Amino acid sequence: MKIVVDKDIPFIWGVLEEFAQVVYLPGKEIVPEVVKDADALVVRTRTKCNASLLEGSSVKFIATATIGTDHIDLEYCAAAGIAVKNAAGCNSGGVMQYVFTSLFALARKNDIILTGKSVPDFKIGIIGVGNVGTKVAAFGEYLGFEVLRCDPNKEREQTLAFNRGEIPLKDFKDFYSLEYVLKQSDIITLHTDLNPSSRGLAGEEFFSKMKEGAIFINSSRGEVVHDKALKKYRNKLKGLILDVWNGEPDIDLDLLNMADIATPHIAGYSYEGKVNGTTMAVKALAEYFNIEPLKNFRITPPDRNTNFFNKENLTQNQISEYFENIFPIFEHCADLKRNPQDFEKLRSNFKYRREFYVI
């Protein structure tokens, strides 16, 4: 058996060699000639798994160590009999950490009051309430923000589950229309999957309806945003935080300079997120090919994570200091703004941070 693996997936080197011939390559170098006689691929978002790559190959299974699957042509794979497994939710904690670290860092820098009695109704609008959005919502409520959720599919799923008696009333969450969330929210953060309905979602109409002086955060996919519209309405926003970009790694330099915080697609790059992604990919491959020794594969951390967060008696600045001590986000922003041509290098060499957990 031959398995082709993206060389930048951490913790996987040496794991599969006992069971297969393993070829490690950069994601963009996983090409038809390489996969022609492969049985399986283990990839990230940089490998486009479509007919151009897979047609005529012997690939039977693709595991992606990522939440998203927009780099995989699922329709083609289904028609070709290729099984696909993603690492759903693997880095949701890391992205949640990014959202609040960047938000509080921006507030500290620009003297924006987020917490306290002077802003009892400060609202965070979450567009897309899947694995990531759910954690962002929960932590936002823990910090005292009012959370407005927007996700028609999740709203429908919740209603059906409630009607079937699968969730109690106390767990029932209110969802709102996109227009309402845009008009009412002081912060908008995107956490939608990339699909035909979400591509270009944040365009002219989206930004025109946003509340004047709101903060906009995108850590989902760059293609969800229409860059021209965002640049047009930039002055309407009090803050702009971007981790994902159209055309990565060749990003819009004007938009880069407009952002208060700009990072090279590393929102989910936590140690725990990477451990989860690799573990889920390996286990999925083991289940598909019935590799018994790998079905309980796990990665043992080098040390215990002691990042436990308790908001009690903390000021806004103390909360910001706590988050930034774990994740010095302005350093990463400065690196990208100085060297945008090194987008991929900065991403590949990023030192994984540890996540924090609420006590």
Layout of SSEs?
Layout: E1 2-6, E2 21-25, H1 32-35, E3 40-43, H2 51-54, E4 61-64, H3 74-80, E5 83-86, H4 92-110, E6 123-127, H5 131-143, E7 146-150, H6 152-163, H7 178-184, E8 187-190, H8 204-209, E9 215-218, H9 227-232, E10 239-242, H10 253-258, E11 261-262, H11 271-289, E12 308-309, H12 316-326, H13 329-338, H14 343-348, E13 357-358
Helix pairs in contact: 4-5, 4-12
What attributes characterize this protein structure?
13 strands, alpha/beta, 359 residues, 36% helix, globular, 6-stranded parallel sheet
Compact description:
36% of the residues lie in helices and 14% in strands. The chain contains 14 helices and 13 strands.
Describe what this molecule looks like in 3D.
This protein is α/β, with parallel strands linked by helices and 359 residues long. The protein is 36% helix and 14% strand. It contains 14 helices and 13 strands. The protein has helices at residues 32-35, 51-54, 74-80, 92-110, 131-143, 152-163, 178-184, 204-209, 227-232, 253-258, 271-289, 316-326, 329-338, 343-348; strands at residues 2-6, 21-25, 40-43, 61-64, 83-86, 123-127, 146-150, 187-190, 215-218, 239-242, 261-262, 308-309, 357-358. Helix 4 (92-110) crosses helix 5 (131-143) and helix 4 (92-110) packs across helix 12. The longest helix has 19 residues, at 92-110. It is globular. The model has no long low-confidence stretch (mean pLDDT 95).
